[in-house]
Amino acid sequence: MLVLLAGIFVVHIATVIMLFISTIANVWMVGTSSVGKASWGLWLLCNSTCRQLPVSSSNEASLKAAQAFMILSIIFSVIALVMFIVQLFTLEKGKRFYITGAIMLVCWVCILIGASIYTARFTGNMVGLTNTHHGYSFILAWICFCFSFIIGILYLVLRKK
């Protein structure tokens, strides 16, 4: 049981780190511009220099929503990690980590909403760029989506023996 708890803890920490990287790095999409290779994410458009991500006024709310949900996913993931540590030392034997699992599933929903909004509204949608494809931040976000779901379910069914 100790090995299982340690494994879940390590995967949870890895998920938090990948969520940070995914949200902060501006490599959700990569393409070619007239100046060379360019990448953009939730915050900036970068080629030789980085500048504010140019979005139309109709897409600005979608970008803000994607940013907000990805930040919320980080917050909920960190809260779930802290709750796991607290519950590990305060729960009686045989009790389940319901609160931690529920918070992690809220994190999962936030990642789903944030990444889905970005996918629907901004994938390959940058004017002046050709040969676009998904970058590592986008892929990390979807990996975190899978990990947070698995961790959330494991917390819900996990008993401390």
UniProtKB/TrEMBL annotation:
The chain crosses the membrane at residues 7-30, 68-90, 97-118, 138-158. InterPro entries: PMP-22/EMP/MP20-like, PMP22/EMP/MP20/Claudin, PMP22_EMP_MP20. The keyword Membrane applies. It is found in: Membrane. Keywords: Glycoprotein, Membrane, Transmembrane, Transmembrane helix. Pfam families: PMP22_Claudin. It is a multi-pass membrane protein. GO terms for cellular component: plasma membrane. Its main location: membrane. PANTHER family: EPITHELIAL MEMBRANE PROTEIN 1, EPITHELIAL MEMBRANE PROTEIN-RELATED. Belongs to the PMP-22/EMP/MP20 family. This is Epithelial membrane protein 1. It comes from Chauna torquata (Southern screamer). The lineage of its organism: Eukaryota, Metazoa, Chordata, Craniata, Vertebrata.
